[in-house]
Design a protein that fits this description.
Layout: E1 4-7, H1 32-41, E2 45-51, H2 62-77, E3 85-89, H3 112-121, E4 129-132, H4 135-143, E5 148-151, H5 157-164
Parallel strand pairs: 1-2, 1-4, 2-3, 4-5
Helix pairs in contact: 1-5
Length: about 160
């Protein structure tokens, strides 16, 4: 089985700006790109698990999210790094897109995104951790039985990864 670091996206990998889907509003958190590279260099999967309720709210589309994630991958490639997978929940119970405006099993704090990634990549939860910036991220980490959930304070992500993994 493999080890993974799960990262929430907004507020952990990039600065929180509220409903981010535009590349021009994207800004990496200090040390985020280097933290991903650290994972890659140490045979640890780097997996993003993120709620994207703006899709259900009609603010942007799944294609917009995919385009932003592609931009992130392209930017990471400049330093020889990559994210192994992106998992996101497009649902929100207060959305306006009818088919996505539901209470689902994949929206954190539920652990379905993490559990799917564990199954897809043969990840050992007991050897893996989650970096998140909200209590719902920590709840998801506990529910998925990860070794730890680390509440990230927005400082240097590479330092936090090295200190906790």
């Amino acid at each position: 089985m493999r080890r993974a670091i799960f990262f929430d996206r907004d507020g952990v990998l990039n600065e929180e700006v509220g409903y981010l889907w535009q590349v021009e509003r994207f800004k990496w958190i200090d040390g985020a790109r280097e933290a991903i590279k650290f994972c890659n260099d140490n045979n640890v999967l780097a997996i993003v698990v993120t709620n994207q309720g703006g899709i259900a709210r009609g603010l942007y589309t799944a294609e917009d999210v995919d385009a932003l994630h592609n931009f992130m991958q392209e930017d990471l490639s400049k330093i020889g790094a990559h994210i192994d997978a992106f998992y996101y929940c497009p649902h929100h119970p207060e959305g306006v897109v009818k088919e996505l405006s539901i209470v689902c099993e994949c929206r954190k704090p539920k652990p379905a995104l993490i559990l799917k990634a564990c199954a897809d990549f043969n990840v050992n939860p007991a050897e893996s951790i989650m970096f998140g910036d909200t209590e719902r991220d920590m709840e998801a980490a506990r529910a998925a039985k990860l070794r730890a959930g680390i509440l990230f304070d927005g400082s240097n992500l590479l330092t936090a990864v090295k200190e906790n993994f």
